[in-house]
Amino acid sequence: MTPPTGAVQITCPDCRDTLVPGRVDHSSLLTNGPMIVEHVPAFVCPQCGYSAIPAQTWEVLEQLAAGCAAPVRFATVPVYDLSELPDAGIQIPRRPQAT
Ligand SMILES: [Zn+2]
After folding, report:
1. What is the DSSP string of the chain?
2. Is residue 23 in some structural domain?
3. What is the Å distance from ligand 1's center to 71 Cα?
4. How many domains are there within the chain?
5. CA of 25 relative to ligand 1 center, distance in Å
6. Out of 3, 22, 64, 92, which could bridge 44 as a Cys pair, Cβ 3.0 to 4.6 Å?
């Protein structure tokens, strides 16, 4: 698959720069766990890194989420839970110190 091309000009909603064809890594949380897709064709802001994935590429991601292709590898991902922290003034919980 090649990066998206064409005469369409998309402007970054954050910094107003023009997005250019590129690749991004995309992650989503499915009902059966996380899915990571690397090198997804997208339009990327050269200024701030904002990315927009074209509709036809979303269709490919949906097919992958439905299990239409075998993954190239599996990864273990860390999971955190911030439900015990107050909404404001959040501090990252530190690892317990070894004694
Ligand atoms: Zn930008």
Report:
1. -PPP-SS---B-TTT-PBPEEEEEEEEEEETTEEEEEEEEEEEE-TTT--EE--HHHHHHHHHHHTT-S--S----------TTS-SSS--PPPPPPP-
2. yes
3. 31
4. 1
5. 17
6. 22
CATH of the domain at 1: 3.10.20.860
The pLDDT assigned to 84 comes to: 79
Q: How far is the CA of 99 from the centre of ligand 1 (A)?
A: 46
Mean of pLDDT over the chain? 88
Please check whether residue 57 is in contact with residue 41, taking contact to mean a CB–CB distance below 8 angstroms. Answer: yes
* 96 and 88 Cβ atoms separated by less than 8 Å: no
Per-residue pLDDT at 26 exceeds 50: yes
Q: Assign residue 39 a region: left if phi > 0, alpha if psi is -120 to 50, beta otherwise? A: left
Higher-scoring residue by pLDDT: 1, 5: 5
pLDDT score of 71: 96
